[in-house]
Design brief:
single chain, about 270 residues, mainly beta, 13 strands, globular
Amino acid sequence: MTDARHFLGIEPIGDDLHWQLHVVPELTTPGDFLFGGCGLAAALVALEHASGRPTIWATAQYLSYAPTDAVLDLTVTLAAVGKRITQGRVVGNVGAKEILTVNAAVGTTGSLDTGGVWVTPPEVPPPDECPPRRLPFLNTTSIFDRVELRLAKGRSFEEISTGPGGTGDATSALWARVPGHLEPSAATLAIFGDYVTGGVSQPIGRHVMSRSLDNTLRVVSLEPTEWVLCDIRIQALAGGYGQGVAYLWSQGGSLLATASQSMSVRLWD
């Protein structure tokens, strides 16, 4: 089992507040720039290491693109350090251009002895009974070569291409894993949470290209699980902008985190 730091290839430069990420093809979108979830994941690796505390909440604002083979410099600021919670910020640059800004809270477990989870996972087949989710047009190396996806609920790429289109279900679900595989961490979940954008095609029945404007992760609990169920729910699409959320579940049915995104959307027919 490997961890997110080694999966991403991120390393500190000089001290714990300065890190570098080489944007290799396996961390990119098919458009040859850094996959947004990998950018957020890299920031969380750096912030958790610098603070010594696990992630509670984090949000990334995507400002520009980090192209394949670029070097992303990440600078950590521990803005407010408390007894239990640290508020921090990570800024990622390629040269003089700011690519992403991440604001987050990291902290140790509290002493409150009551709580619960008041949402439930969807009823879907287990991963070995679900078909692979593939994008048949891909002929370049990307993040999709390192993350295995299985379609648990919703229409496949081919069904959207050849089907009648029209209004469909705004909910879909994917099983996701890294063969090998990654230990449970906020960084790992940040990668999986970025698949929210892929759910926009489901309710409208047409292929779209969605650019993430932000990516917010809220961690509930971490537990070992080979597969993570991304329970995607698109909330709205209006004026070329969409919003959606994903509940990230373990194979055992535990809620690991929620991920939400706003995105710029255009048709891709």
